[in-house]
Please model this.
Amino acid sequence: MAILHIAWRELRALFSTAIGWMVLCGFLSITGVLWFIWLAEYADQQAKMAFNPYGGASLSVTEALLIPWFGNCALILIFMAPALSMRMFAEEYKQRTMELLFTSPISTLEIVLGKYLGTVCFAVVMLLCTAHVPATLYYWGQPEFGAVAGSYLATFLLASLIIAMGMFCSSMTTNQVVALSMSFAASLVLWVAAFAGSDPDALLSHIGLTTHLQEMYGGSVRLSDLVYFGTGILVFIFATHQRLESHRWS
Amino acid sequence: MIQVKQLTKNYGATLAIDKLDFQVEKGEIVGFLGPNGAGKSTTMRILAGSLSASSGEAMVGGVDVFNDPRKVKSMVGYLPEFPPLYTDMTVRSYLRFCARIKRADEPKKAVERVIDQVGLTKVAHRLIDHLSKGFRQRVGIAQALVHSPSVLILDEPASGLDPAQRVEIRSLVKGLSDGETTVILSTHVLPEVEAVCDRVVIINKGLIVGQGSMDQLAGSGTSVNLRVARPDEALLQRLKDVDDVSVVSDLGDGKYTIAAGSDVREEVARRAVDAGLLELGASRALEDTYLKLTGGE
Model:
């Protein structure tokens, strides 16, 4: 239960501080604008195809609209999710509130999981706020359910991994800007890793985020992708736990 | 209630506390006295479970702090030197959060009880960010009390407060001693210790350099400060004639300092009434002892 209380406190803190609202509004504004850009592009392409005597079937809303838009959402998350996680422990150290958590009858793991869960819940709220996109598509067209569900799952896993990384970075410093920079740099490295190696079987390609997102966007959830994200999240939760424990021994 | 044996803590190459040995009985109020950096906070943090020790034993209520920290934490209320407050929360919501993570029985009732106990009723709905330092300190004490701990550890509870707030906090702490709750408080303000504590542990450079009751440490000597409205020679003589008085110093403007071998306040007051007694105070020789033990002479 302590995990839930800490998670609730974390979620409340994000909604009661400017940074939470800035991330939420920024994410929704940018993804909203991108949605309209992709929509206009799609309408344009569709019109061109309608007047093309050699044109075949109409463009798929899933492939021409939904998947590229979710790809953009992922990139925006790379920039924005670190801003959510930067305060998780850096702020606690700075305000000296870690002492309250450390002297309460709860374990370090409960503290870590509670804070992580609270921030992930905020990311879920962000994603839920984009529900108008598939809703509109279902109203006007027929997007593939698997692609919609897979894209949301991919974006959720991506956000969860970045938050776990950011949480670890936040546990390393009392300075939120340093935590943000570390977390952003790590996310960016994972993002570009997939493009760095030309060989799809190269290690860099396996480490890269996009390698594990592409199939999910199409609605195909591979075990290897789930293991990638799951392992990454667990590694950073464990690293954060160890980092906090080391404070007691410092 | 608290037993500490050979407790040692190193921060890298720096020795923060060195083989501390002391114990605190149930219901006692014990003051940790020492200069800054003496090791008071380190000892308290170890007892509160937020810091590990390098070696030694610490038991709270018969439970080993290092083997069963959770159980110890549920018995201990801790106020660090800087109260751990979430300033974006209201007093009530913050205390509810504390009550829940500290696993208080009936959290809502516990919060209302503690709000009443430490005098936060008027500000319970306000954001902690908008509170004065004195009220913030009270909120800090409230979070330490919310789960009804049997041991209360207060690290400099009155530090940074103005004199009026210090008196308030002092009387608040004094009021917590119900014979059931054991209190350890640290300070480097001697009057605070004299006003509140039953016993003192003096720490310097990580070592216990003295411990005992106030009388044991101060000896029986007393220094009485007196102010009267109508000073005269007869009064001076009457004061010198009091048993056990060794020196009477006339400081002018009706102020006198009387050094005596025992507590002579009652007799001094009786003799000063006719001269228009305005103020009477006493300080024990604890200050001298403290300075000697901590090398502050």
